[in-house]
Amino acid sequence: MLKIILRWILTLLYKVEVKGLENYKKAGNRVLIISNHSSFLDPLLLSVFLPNDITFAINKDIADRWWLKPFLGLSNVFSLDPTHPMQLKDLIHHLKDTDSKTVIFPEGRITVTGSLMKIYDGTGMVADKSGAALLPIRIDGAEYTPFSRLQKIVKLRLFPKITLSILAPTKLGIDDKLQGKARRHASGTVLADIMTDMVFNTSRYQQTLFSALLEAKKIHGGKHTVAEDTDRIPLSYNTIITRTIAIGNALKKISSPNENIGIYLPNSTKTLNIVLGLQLIGRVPAMLNYSTGASGMGSACQTAKIKTVLTSRRFIELGKFVSDAQQLSEIVNLIYLEDIAAKITLIDKLTAFIQAQTVNFWYPRLNQSAESPAVVLFTSGSEGAPKGVVLSHSNILANHKQVSARINFNAQDVVLNFLPMFHSFGFTVGTMLPIMNGMTTFFYPSPLHYSIIPEIAYEIGATIIFGTNTFLAAYGHKAHAYDFFNIRYVVAGAEKLNENTRQLWSDKFGIRILEGYGATETSPVAAVNTPMYYKKGTVGRLLPNMQYKLKNIPGIEDAGQLHLYGKNIMQGYLLANNPGVLVPPKSIYGEGWYDTGDIVHIDNEGYLSIRGRSKRFAKISGEIISLAAVEQHLIALWPDTEHLIVCIPDDKKGEQLVLLSTRAKLSYKELKQKSVGFSSIALPKKFIHVEALPILASGKINYAAATEIALREFS
Fold it and tell me: Domain span at residue 688?
């Protein structure tokens, strides 16, 4: 009777919804229920809303709370210290000998970050040795109640909606060959993966970016500041939504549904509003890489069938793009934001304000699909002609949820985003991720201001920075030792993180750079090192809910060409030879699989090590040579200079290596003397001195330009 009364009260107060009860029945009689630990309400919620009698293996500190004891009396209780091995053995015997459903919180404590905390290996050992079925249950919403430990981190509410999601039962499946500490560690890792998969699979990513923005406003409050730029005008959710509606209404008059609209603008809050405004009215922003000049942007417009491009006179003048804009205007309709703004009347602004107040009523009626295109981004073209990459709303939001299942961030974080929005890292991770999760994003228009960006980080108290090795190395040399005093995470991607860059940040700032891996086609993050799962020299482990296959490459041992599958994989390509036609991803493994073209090694713990691009291997006299491995050897010899290896045709040996280096007076004789033990066939014999390596605006090496330099010199 008490359970019935409590269930009625909790349902009334928190609108508790239980999903997946059929999985509870499928789990059988001997079950270990694993759940995230979001608040002091968790044991009460599970005991009241799960059928039958359950047993709780609960942290002793929590079980001893006087006000919880009456509620815990509704179930059997194992008072448990997860670090005490004898108590864990008692729990194992209980699960082996008794048909019961036992709840354990693998984190061992209530979250203080809003994300999963450390998963104890001991819980994995219990699951492994007991042989019980594992039943993951996600508690979502209780972290926003006053019964959580997130005071001053998130906006707490008296009665938020709480959802209990019961996932399908599973088993650990540990390799029988593993024993002792190795087996215990493997059990903990697999259990942690089950938990992060649970968090991702129960997340809301099947929605549009604008609906995710409305959801973020509901969670963090309309007055919560989430964006700022060099104009130094902080924008709240309320302001962003109102401006988005106003600009959307204006753009609706000059465009057609589902049309690709070119964006020729810098990082700013205005660009954010333009992008969201287009998505709101069912148009697709296509982010043009203005560093490629008029010809590059013109090519992109033809590939994506872009007829209208939005830009700004102020941007064109300050960026000295007058000539580019004039040439581009000859093939597309170039529209300036200043002209659009001049036509927005007071009545238009009032209408947008009223619409913003009623948006929760009318926006769901638009029935916009999460699978519709959200953006067109163009690949860097570092190895050939750029392609248009079409990402859906759910692609982008799925990637957000995958990242948040592994790394904790909250509404107190400040992201300094200097990566241009035409770069996938800058668009999805630097812009949309923080906006949709309550963090404040500071937009800076160029990553090339090496002395200014560290000062900006210091001034705004940035806690998170995303960058490339090239940019991070430059900031590290220019910055004062205290400029990054408030930084929690520095995440590197888009190119390999050099050891000297890693060491510089560690020695000068005391910051461990978290290297990740991905591509525009993966929205963009595929793997990343995290504070909990980190291995030097790797790019981390694949994100939740991602599958991989390694294609064997003749001549390359202990590695293969990486193919990926997951919710974050793009909708497809737009290609120059077939403009406007979407080509879905496909590999030798079938539809939806993406061939990364990267040669990787994956160790027994799931960490990825990048051996190089498939195009960055040379075949010399029948032997396969990794250009990346040669570059790392050269960096180790001369860490204060930059080195790049390219290969060009050779009549006798098939291919030959050419070194582009900022180090002057290099010779084969000197290189060979310093390379004792290194394969002589892998040493370049031709050298080109350059003042700087050719790079793209994204900070990645421009391999196509480097190869052209080598061909001009030696062909």
Answer: 621-714
